Amino acid sequence: MAVQEAGQGGGSAAGGHGGGCSCGDCPHGARAGHRRAVAEFLLKRDGFAAGQGLPAAVAHSASASRQWVSEELTQSAELVAVRGRAEGEAWLARLWLRTATGVWALVVVLLLVQAFTAIGAGWTSARTAGLLAALVTAGALTAASWFHRARGGALAPVIGEDNRLSTSRAVAGAWVLFVAYAVLVLVGRLAAASGHGERDALIAGLELGRAAGVVTVLAVVCAIAVLVRRVVGVRVLGQRLQKVRADRPRAADLLTDDSGRGSFADIQYVVIGGVALLFAAVRLARRPDQLPDLPWGLAVVVLISAATYLAGKYAEGGRPVILSVVRAREAGDLDAPIRTGDDVEIRGAGFVPPGAHGADRLSRMVVRVGAVHVRVPLVPVAGGFSNPTDAVLTVPVPADVEPGRVEVQVVTAAGVETNRYVIDVTE
Description:
Layout: H1 2-12, H2 30-49, H3 56-59, H4 62-117, H5 125-147, H6 167-192, H7 196-204, H8 212-237, H9 264-286, H10 296-315, E1 321-327, E2 338-339, E3 343-349, H11 359-362, E4 366-369, E5 372-375, E6 379-381, E7 384-387, E8 392-396, E9 404-411, E10 421-426
Parallel strand pairs: 2-10
Antiparallel strand pairs: 1-3, 3-8, 4-5, 4-9, 6-7, 9-10
Helix pairs in contact: 1-2, 2-4, 4-5, 5-6, 6-8, 6-9, 8-10, 9-10
């Protein structure tokens, strides 16, 4: 598909949308430009991996050709990154309308459910209060979507600083909306109540003794959302956690880590929180005269899930580390000490931060060899890159490095520095 798009790129654009458009209102602008840039990059990378496209001036030298290929891929990757950011901004600008449409679709579903369940039982004031509460909630969310239309609409509060959906904020936001809806239902019933006894019963339904489980869960999930933000921020500033910004948020962010792999801590938190929220919603539908009384057994399960999620946030990540540096040896080479101009292989862990496997991120990696900063060259292979990787980097020792004991240090794409490793460079 990417090859076909690259081949048809010259004829698929029309007018002012030839791939460079980044406006958020045009469906053929930023998205088409990003897809075309990705297709061109993939063609170039796979061509270089197959040994095609090298100029004769550098083809005779392995180091020169590697450096030239790396520079070409870096420039192409930067264009892909620019197009990706433009597409992400355009996607966020369109998201507010989708979120507003989804909210009102839920209101329609609620109306249909109430209409079907009212057959035989009749329409009650509780159903009217529930529908009016839904209309008020949907109106508030729509207004919030409009004012935050450039940042994702109603989803803006649950989008983290790394431009990903935050699991803790999403769970806390869901519980806040549910509790607000439940209170609005009681407010609507209280406004329609005619007798003193009915009004007193509705007010008693707000007592803490009847809703201690829900209140406890709400307090804990909100505290977790605030605490997780603090924990992540402190660990990033302390270089104990690597974070790179995503092009745009995705629904999968709620269940995965930054690299896109499923995260047990996130999945169990979303699943258990969602099940408990569904139970509370059924309790509210059955007894709309009080806040839903979440059983303490279920509330404790949610608290254990929240504690597991928080522990997972403390345990994830880690600072990258260099374990060893050795001279890279090709087939037929003699064993020898490290000299200027030789390639060295840096072995360790955590060199590629989660979510930084794109070429634009990999090209930002730097190795300090003494006082010289060396860009890590991109070495393409079919479907990806053989250098750099998360555990191994290969870089040349520059000619400007003085012989003697030299410190080597890796700076990752997230700006985190590894430990310093000392090597001996001979003349």
